[in-house]
DNA sequence: GTCTATAGCAGGATAGAC
DNA sequence: GTCTATCCTGCTATAGAC
């Protein structure tokens, strides 16, 4: 019993600390020593539990990142339950809310987006997991929700580009915090995050909002 | 003469190869040996010319990245010369065009955005340079161009969030190529890049384009 | 399952010849 | 300015005791 406990706890601590460090510094900048120190266990534990460093990285995605992405999608879905039918505005707001405020702690949100951006910009094996198991199904669901509101003539590609654009904003305001803060002069307080949710919702609905005729 | 020549050529080759490698793999994943091999010079050359690896990285930004960012801004400015007054549509299109088609080769565009995203998501000393010398002034200019078209009551912050959002799209469609391709099924041909320019322009102007009443 | 000890190698950096 | 040779640190991974 205490054996199994130790096993699980060590493995869990390793996954947690590894994820935090990989997110903050990137795969190559983190050493196994650093991870095992942070997890208060022995250097050899990584090789025992995961075989090698790279496998630990992949396991971080399988055991931590992907489940969290699913929780985010659940949170998104719940936001929409109140609505009789998902209007584009409701979808945009629920999306922004789930990713910018949502169920995650600040630390978790940070981890999540840092790791995602690292994979998006430099695809390793983990990107396959991320795209195939999380992004594609989620985008498909979003497409289904938005399609009824779109002009008849717009195809799936148009829809996907729209979704990718909302996604780009959500991602950007999460991972480029340092730059956003430097440019706007605002820290990521609850108030500012709510302001960002408003902004993303509006921009998704009306762009710059200059009231130009629609075509 | 040949001395000075050799000096400059070696230094230039180092900067070029270093930038390419840092962009593709990230700072920590690249070794000085790898760089000097690619530049066909001796291991000690990095320390001779730049002092150390980190300084070489910073010099890549000073001597390569920032000048290229200036060229992009020039290209953006030129796109707008034909217009009597810069309408929001013209600004959005010029922005998307400069960054997605623009004056850079595919390889240069790739380098540029990879390095930028690395800095945006994990600020090192180079982020200060990037934000202070490139982003902030550029955003200020954009703000000046867009302000006349905005509703009276919207302040600078609203304007900045709008600019950051356009920027987020431009950036995203450049750095997340792998994922975009995986999701849309489209490679980054000239045709698709032009399609993206259209999309970014439209999304910037009207968002999802569902024709919702403006407020 | 967890530890110590260590093999074996790659990394950044430098001294000094040319 | 460029080279070779080398130092020394820190890395991943493993063998083997407990």
Strand content of chain A: under 5%
Compressed to H and E, one letter per element, the order of chain A equals HHHHHHHHHH
Counted beta strands of chain A? 0
Predict the CATH topology of the domain at 61-210 in chain A.
Tetracycline Repressor, domain 2
Considering residues with a beta carbon less than 8 A from a beta carbon on another chain, report the largest interface and each chain's count. A-B, 65 and 64 residues
Looking at how many chains there are and whether they match, the oligomeric state comes to homodimer
| CATH superfamily placement of the domain at 61-210 in chain A | Tetracycline Repressor, domain 2
Rough shape of chain A? elongated
End-to-end Cα distance of chain A, whole Å, is 68 Å
Helix percentage range of chain A? over 70%
Which residues of chain A sit in consecutive blocks of at least 5 with pLDDT less than 50? Answer: 1-5
The first-level CATH class of the domain at 61-210 in chain A is given as: Mainly Alpha
**Rg estimate of chain A, integer Å:** 20 Å
Please tell me the overall pLDDT of chain A: 93
